[in-house]
TrEMBL record:
Organism: Rivibacter subsaxonicus
Keyword annotations from UniProtKB, A to Z: Hydrolase
Entry's family note: Belongs to the dGTPase family. Type 2 subfamily.
UniProt-listed HAMAP family: dGTPase_type2
Name of the protein in its database record: Deoxyguanosinetriphosphate triphosphohydrolase-like protein
Any one GO MF annotation of this record: dGTPase activity
Length: 377
């Protein structure tokens, strides 16, 4: 498929931090994707959770299944917009590599532990994983990914962190946070696909867990619209099939909205290059109506799922596990932490890297080893 003029062309990539010869059979972004898939951090995602902790069930989403769903949605939309599918996929597969065990509860706890040491943010950690922490190559630390993939991975960044990164890498991936410009359209798309996938599968997992009901979901316009479509076409359908059909339509409604709304923005702005697209306001986006609908769904999930007493009990325990491990390792650094990393990055950051790399299972075992108690009853 021919790429649009505003799509990232691997032949015009800004390159890698450490130059490498081109691969004979793969583009730069295909190479990035392959390196991500074969990384240790990517494999760990299979036992890192979203909302429900690993021990609560085998069928709930993990960071790995989430990343695959994001990649599928992003590639589908990217194809319709003539964007670079390989770059979109690479960003989507890598965007959660820096997540801690136990989802956002683990991240919040680790950020609290790292107050006074630069804090902790999972987007920044994902970049740190691909730039420094992976140890697969003799010639360099990290995966040495292309600028465009790294740019997409770093989707959020505080000004203080951006200034630090800019000092380390002038005109690098953090520059846009200081100049107020946008990342590539592929990065914008991966970010939005993340939101679409997250909302849909949290509805699915919420109903599967019994914490949400279809009756509750009828109050959400986007879900109610999808349910009405299904019932209009399949009278009498119920149970899981009704939910799955509604989720499928809910995803389609959002995907087609993104495609139509983005095409209209591209028509109006008419960016003639990748850099012109970066200099424009965000171009890959929902229509205003769909943005409102998505926000309503987010508010519903926050109030009824993420703040459900059962979920809050588990996340409180997860925060305790992470903070206990950080405190214990600060008192006695475990042998598993590389001494070179300790000297290079300092003890708190090396401990944060170690804990962030843990799966839910490993963190639970480590907690029991440290305290003599099970992490989760």
């Amino acid at each position: 498929m021919q790429l649009a003029v505003y799509a990232c062309d691997p032949l015009r990539s800004r390159g890698r931090r450490i130059p490498e010869p081109a691969a004979p059979t793969r583009t730069e972004y295909q190479r990035d994707r392959d390196r991500i898939v074969h990384s240790t951090a990517f494999r760990r995602l299979v036992y890192k959770t979203q909302v429900f902790v690993n021990h609560e069930g085998d069928l709930y989403r993990t960071r790995l299944t989430h990343s695959l769903e994001v990649a599928q949605l992003a590639r589908s939309i990217g194809r319709s917009l003539a964007l670079n599918e390989d770059l979109v996929e690479a960003i989507a597969l890598a965007h959660d590599l820096g997540h801690t065990p136990f989802g956002h509860a683990g991240q919040d706890a680790l950020h609290q532990c790292m107050q006074g040491h630069g804090g902790f943010e999972h987007n920044l950690q994902s970049l740190r994983v691909v730039d420094r922490l992976e140890e697969r190559y003799a010639a360099f630390d990290g995966l040495n990914l292309s600028f465009e993939t790294r740019e997409g991975i770093l989707k959020h960044c505080s000004r203080a962190n951006a200034e630090r990164l800019e000092r380390e890498e002038p005109r690098g991936v953090a520059e846009r946070f200081l100049r107020g410009t946008q990342p590539s359209l592929e990065a914008q798309l991966a970010n939005l696909a993340d939101e679409i996938a997250y909302n849909a599968h949290d509805v699915d997992d919420g109903v599967r867990s019994g914490l949400l009901t279809l009756e509750q979901l009828e109050s959400v316009d986007l879900v109610a619209r999808a349910l009405a479509q299904v019932r209009g076409e399949h009278a009498g359908l119920g149970g899981r099939r009704l939910l799955f059909e509604a989720l499928r339509r809910m995803l389609s409604i959002q995907v087609y909205d993104v495609i139509d709304a983005t095409r209209e923005r591209l028509r109006v702005v008419a960016p003639a290059s990748v850099d012109a697209a970066r200099a424009a306001p965000p171009l890959v986006a929902f229509s205003p109506e769909m943005r409102d609908a998505s926000r309503q769904l987010k508010r519903f999930l926050f109030a009824n799922l993420y703040r459900h007493p059962q979920v809050e009990r588990t996340t409180a325990r997860a925060r305790l596990v992470v903070s206990t491990l950080f405190e214990a390792y600060s008192a006695e650094v475990p042998a598993e932490i590389d001494r070179v990393m300790l000297e290079r990055d300092g003890t708190p950051r090396a401990i944060a890297d170690f804990i962030a790399g843990m799966t839910d299972r490993y963190a639970g075992v480590a907690y029991e080893r440290v305290t003599g108690h099970r992490a989760f009853a």
